[in-house]
Amino acid sequence: LVIYWRVRKCQEGYMKYLALILVTSFLADFIGIMNSLFFKIQYVNESVSYLYYFIDIIFLSLLYRAQFPRRFENLFNYIIVLLFFVYCCWSFFNPIIITRHESKVPIGIISIFFCLSYFYQLIKKMPGIYVYQIPMFWINSGLLTYASGTVILFGISNYLIYVLKKDMIEYWIFHNALNTICHILIAIGLWKVTLKAKTT
């Protein structure tokens, strides 16, 4: 966020969606930590998480919509948002069946779809500059690293905790390592921002 703020004047317009993703992520984590440490209000963490997932997928869709030709702008984004909204509602009213971690699986799958689609679009229409000079290349690499590395972890977390009785410390170290790599790559991408570095 600090890097984004410092280079905001030369950002492409769609980069504001990335900033909003980072802000909502920080706020969701902050509220969850404060509630767990001090307030301990039941279902607050779950409610905040579901709201964050829904907001996140909207901003993620808007971020990637700007990377594709206009003829692809509407269809797949709105379908995914609608399906994810239905899933979040179903998850919220079935807290015993679906945990917060398992609810992150759909957003992980959608993120992987967006990231791979972006790389395909990038290969199909290679820009006239080196690929490492494109901000979205780094940002997309970070998001793909995190999503592909954690989607399985979130999917089997319930099984690991309640069936195998596993100590999750090792798994969360792996999760936090991927999260750190993701944010480093995003930071590199933000430093690479110029008005001339377009991918579409």
Give a written overview of the molecule:
The chain is mostly helical and 200 residues long. It is 70% helix and 0% strand. The protein is built from 8 helices and no strands. α5 runs antiparallel to α6. It starts with a helix and ends in a 9-residue tail after the last helix.
Descriptive tags:
globular; 70% helix; 8 helices; 200 residues
Summarize the structure.
With about 200 residues, the chain is mainly α. It has 8 helices and no strands. Helix 3 packs parallel to helix 5 (about 105-125), helix 5 runs antiparallel to helix 6 (about 135-155) and helix 6 (about 135-155) packs antiparallel against helix 8 (about 170-190).
Shape, per Cα inertia axes: globular
Sheet-strand content, in percent, reads under 5%
Order of helices and strands: HHHHHHHH
Runs in which pLDDT lies below 50 for 5 or more consecutive residues are 195-200
Number of helices: 8
- Given the helix and strand composition, which structural class is it? mainly alpha
Mean pLDDT: 77
Number of strands: 0
Helix content: over 70%
Main pleated-sheet profile: none
Radius of gyration based on Cα positions: 18 Å
User: What is the distance, rounded to the nearest whole angstrom, between the alpha carbons of the first and last residues?
Assistant: 25 Å
